[in-house]
């Protein structure tokens, strides 16, 4: 079966007319314990996740029930798209209640900054060979601090952390979450950003605005916002998105350079376009938008063109 961005691979296997999914996850490269343990945590919160039928942890083999092949990603041209998103937003309060686990990494300031620096290390340094001048370096360091501060000051809850159209499946009984093993306790807006500013699909502006407002109402009704106003929520959402999208752009390059997976390179420009659009809305981040447009995006275009 089609793989994902990890070191795992998936095979559909059959026995007695019934199909199953075999997850082959090399334990020398992947710690499989979070997948198993957090499966229970998500299930106990009333969320649907793959059923683990058998494991051989020594060899990194896990037998799962077959959930079919329909993801939200395959439903994005449906006339019912808006309703799909609304029903998925309704899952976020349940995700927020997933109990903390020893397998959830601490999502502290150091870790948040390290995620941003994936962009700096892999996209700017390893791929583009770019070096900041002193002025830009100072602005970049200030930007990182502001993004970390924003994410730390938000109300925290459990977040799926990769809550987008390729990790949400559907069968006749409803929605199922996959790739939940990197869940952490972090900023309340993170999963909404992952869903509504998906790196693989851009919602029309009118639908985005409607769904962003609805996400606020969903989280507010679930008492997850600690009295945050809607304008405050929008800024938290925007700054969380900046952190996530800078990280994602860096990861797409890392997948290419380290793991020889070129299929994600075409997602870099759409992902950084989110960063540019958001940065243009804030005086303190005008430099970021200008820098990306005038210096970084042309370098990326040249790199991508050279690979054709």
UniProtKB/TrEMBL annotation:
GO molecular function annotations of the record: transferase activity
InterPro entries: Aminoglycoside_PTrfase (IPR002575), Kinase-like_dom_sf (IPR011009)
Protein name: Phosphotransferase
Organism: Pseudoalteromonas aurantia
Coiled-coil ranges per UniProt: none
Ranges where the Aminoglycoside phosphotransferase domain occurs: 3-216
Keyword annotations from UniProtKB, A to Z: Transferase
Pfam family, one: APH
């Amino acid at each position: 079966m089609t793989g994902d961005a990890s070191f795992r691979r998936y095979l559909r296997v059959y026995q007695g007319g019934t199909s199953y999914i075999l997850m082959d996850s090399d334990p020398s490269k992947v710690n499989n314990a979070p997948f198993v343990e957090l499966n229970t945590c998500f299930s106990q919160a009333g969320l649907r996740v793959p059923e683990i039928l058998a494991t051989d942890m020594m060899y990194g083999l896990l037998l799962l029930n077959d959930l079919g092949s329909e993801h939200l990603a395959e439903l994005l041209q449906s006339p019912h798209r808006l309703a799909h998103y609304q029903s998925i937003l309704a899952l976020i309060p349940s995700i927020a209640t997933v109990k903390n686990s020893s397998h959830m990494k601490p999502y502290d300031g150091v870790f948040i900054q390290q995620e941003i620096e994936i962009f700096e290390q892999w996209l700017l340094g390893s791929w583009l060979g770019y070096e900041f001048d002193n002025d830009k370096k100072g602005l970049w360091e200030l930007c990182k601090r502001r993004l970390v501060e924003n994410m730390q000051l938000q109300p925290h809850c459990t977040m799926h952390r990769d809550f987008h159209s390729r990790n949400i499946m559907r069968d006749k009984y409803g929605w199922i979450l996959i790739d939940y093993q990197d869940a952490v306790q972090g900023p309340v807006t993170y999963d909404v950003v992952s869903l509504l500013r998906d790196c693989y699909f851009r919602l029309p502006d009118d639908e985005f605005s409607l769904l962003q407002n609805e996400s606020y109402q969903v989280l507010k009704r679930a008492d997850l916002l600690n009295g945050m106003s809607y304008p405050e929520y929008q800024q938290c959402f925007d700054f969380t998105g900046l952190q996530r999208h800078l990280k994602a752009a860096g990861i797409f390059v890392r997948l290419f350079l380290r793991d020889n997976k070129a299929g994600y390179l075409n997602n870099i420009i759409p992902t950084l376009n989110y960063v540019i659009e958001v940065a243009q809305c804030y005086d303190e981040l005008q430099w970021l938008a200008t820098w990306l447009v005038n210096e970084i995006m042309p370098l990326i275009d040249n790199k991508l063109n050279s690979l054709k």
